[in-house]
Amino acid sequence: MNRIFITGIGAVSCLGNDRRTLWKNLLSGQCGIDTLRVHDTKDMEVNIGGEVVELNDARVSVNDKVASRRMDRASQFAVHATFEALEDAGLPVQEIGDNAAVILGAGLAGLETYETQHEKLLTRGPSRVSPFTIPMLMPNAPPGNVSLAFGIRGTAYTTSSACSSSGHAMIDAFEYLRRGDADFVVTGGTEASLTRLGISSFVNMRAMNKGCNDRPKKSMRPFDAERGGFIMSEGASILIFETEEHLRRRGGRAWAEVLSGRSTSDSFHLTQPDPEGRQAVRAIQQALQKAGLNPESISRETYVSAHGTSTHYNDAMETVALKSVFGGRATDLQISSIKSMLGHMIGAACAIEMSACAMALSSGVLPPTINYDTPDPECDLNYIPNSAVNKSCRYAINNSFGFGGHNVSLVIGRVEDAALQRDDL
After folding, report:
1. Sheet containing 184-191: which strands, arranged edge to edge?
2. Of 194, 176, 276, whose CA–CA distance to 232 is shortest?
3. Exposed, middle or buried: residue 21 (CB in 10 Å: 0-12, 13-18, 19+)?
4. For the whole model, what pTM was predicted?
């Protein structure tokens, strides 16, 4: 059976629009959350977020089939990050052909286009609605544009499961390659939901932190006793999943090996997690079992990229789940939530966290959970508080738990073959 490796990483985020800048800022504990500028949110209860700025249009409008003016921001982010990921992997950036695919996650892709065009409909009449509205807002627009931009003619589609969207996309990409259906897959996720409707909806369901507009850098506090909800952000992270056979044939190198991924559904509540985390536990357990790993045997050499949304229910549930899986060895784990620095990228969250996992395994440095000041008795594990740590880990677990009761857990491993290892962080 084909082994699968992560060979390219691309990023568009509030902490930088390339993987090197993103990684540098994560390790230094920088926070990208700030007062929003793209949309007018001054009259709203939350007017901060993780906004993308200074996107390079040359990496979006790459040929005559695609153009940024015909894309929602979610598609722009996806194309931009894909350009970098392909370059990072040492793969072509045009006319790639039949033996590659695009499988991306998006939770609310196209929301900005929907709002803009709906306002035109109401205020200026139906004749002023753009003919590009549907092609821009449809959930499959990001992979469609990536396919057009780089000439990828294998399958191209979107998975959508709220915060777990890009996790499901990466599981599909992994299985697609395991079946031998392509040489590599462009996968990950994208999101652009920092709009008036998007923010208002999350605020009114009491999921967002309303008390930090004057101190945005302190707004995301995963696992801290004073946490008050998440802050939304936008962006994309694209990863190249590639078969070992193709990677060796072309003389490429890899960031990490993808070992497994599993998903479950809570069937408990549409927006609140099961406090006992029963199906989250099952997802993590099944992912480890499929990878052939015993939790108690690997606890000292495992990094966990937590979903860590800075909400009371999620952080407590995730702690319960990790204790259930690892038992008394849970205290050995190195755990952090990079959402403390990036905010919550919704459908792109699991993807950018997977990128961080891969770079952490490759570099032997683990990113922190910032703004961790007051321990919570319900959250009593090692969350790598406030400063990155030098720690060589063999494995990383990437958890994602989305509205709808969606649970995803992916397991990756450090590249052990020196001939395949990346060393250019």
Report:
1. 156-159, 100-105, 184-191, 235-243, 4-12, 256-265, 406-413, 395-402, 302-305, 334-336
2. 194
3. middle
4. 0.97
Q: Which of 14, 31, 163, 350 is catalytic?
A: 163
Active site residue 307: yes
Beta bridge pairs of residue 266: none
163 is a catalytic site residue:
yes
Q: Is 71 helix (H, G, I), strand (E, B) or coil?
A: coil
Selected catalytic residue, list 168, 246, 344, 406 = 344
The residue among 237, 241, 245 whose CA lies nearest residue 305 is 237
Catalytic residue chosen out of the listed positions 39, 80, 246, 307: 307
Give me the count of residues in the chain.
Answer: 425
- For this structure, is 344 an active site residue? yes
What residue ranges define each of the domains in the chain, with the CATH number in brackets? Answer: 4-250 (3.40.47.10), 259-413 (3.40.47.10)
pLDDT one digit per residue (tens) for the chain, 425 residues: 789 999 999 999 999 999 999 999 999 999 999 999 988 899 999 999 999 999 999 999 999 999 999 999 999 999 999 999 999 999 999 999 999 999 999 999 899 999 999 999 999 999 999 999 999 999 999 999 999 999 999 999 999 999 999 999 999 999 999 999 999 999 999 999 999 999 999 999 999 999 999 999 999 999 999 999 999 999 999 999 999 999 999 999 999 999 999 999 999 998 888 889 999 999 999 999 999 999 999 999 999 999 999 999 999 999 999 999 999 999 999 999 999 999 999 999 999 999 999 999 999 999 999 999 999 999 999 999 999 999 999 999 999 999 888 999 999 999 999 999 998 87
